[in-house]
Design goal:
Length: about 300
Amino acid sequence: MKSSYTYKKINNLEIKLDVHIPPSATAENPAPVIVWYHGGGLLQVSAEILQNYLAMLIQSPRAAVNVIQTISMSQSRNEVSHLFLLAPQADFEEILSDVSDSVSYTIEELPGQTGHRIDVKRWFVSGSSAGGWLSLLVGLGVANPKHIPLACTAIYPITNTLAPFWNTLHEKAEWEDGPVAHETVKEHLNVDAPVVSSNPSNSTRSKMYAWMVQSASLNELLYGTKKDRAGNYAIINVLKEKKDATPPIYIIHGTVDTAVPFSQAVEVVDALKARNAEVQFDVAHDKDHLWDEYDKNERMDGLYAFIRKYL
């Protein structure tokens, strides 16, 4: 069962959490929490899409043991519910501020709002692609130093926007038949356009990620004139500056990922191992980006087995 809760208001804008709790969760037997952040490069998100393994775990009795609650940032205006705020109309640090507030609300307020059917002493964070990046920033205490999860997981995460892939012009994104015309995404590039938080899958906004890749514009879209701040959020730089211990971290990435290079995961795993941190790296051989969305048999068993160790 899904419910929505407002965790933040900005003028007349309500920003919400979508919460899924199985009927088996009670105040006497509360469910552990998984906080989930969606992908899309923080540029595009379709509310119509939910990875198959998430949908199954939400709906099945197995969820009462493993994945109990899936939370995604969302906003509601005029009773229309959407997903999280998108760049470039909202910049990266604004998005990260919302992430911080969503974590605080989840830990401090949501138990009372849900009849104490959730156990926030056992909470975990996860996400895919750009959502995996947000997950790592939550896990490493960058987003919200006050609340650190028991473990952090990331699926083919963006981890370093200073890497050559994001800063090299491409004739086209590899998965596209041809280049995306500027005119196709022009209205979505206007930073003064109304802030949105999702788009239909057939919207021209669904071409924003491909446009970003071909135009090498990720840092410009996320940071605007403050591109010098991009290094602050590269996970390898975060780890260099981090003095305290990291939570256990799980990462899975496909070796032939055309949308987020496999090397993005490798450099973070290497940095974690250099710190003697607890990390599990599952290499998905010959898997491209979004394989978990397209493969209806994908269960992400390794990820959930990792989480179960800390329940």
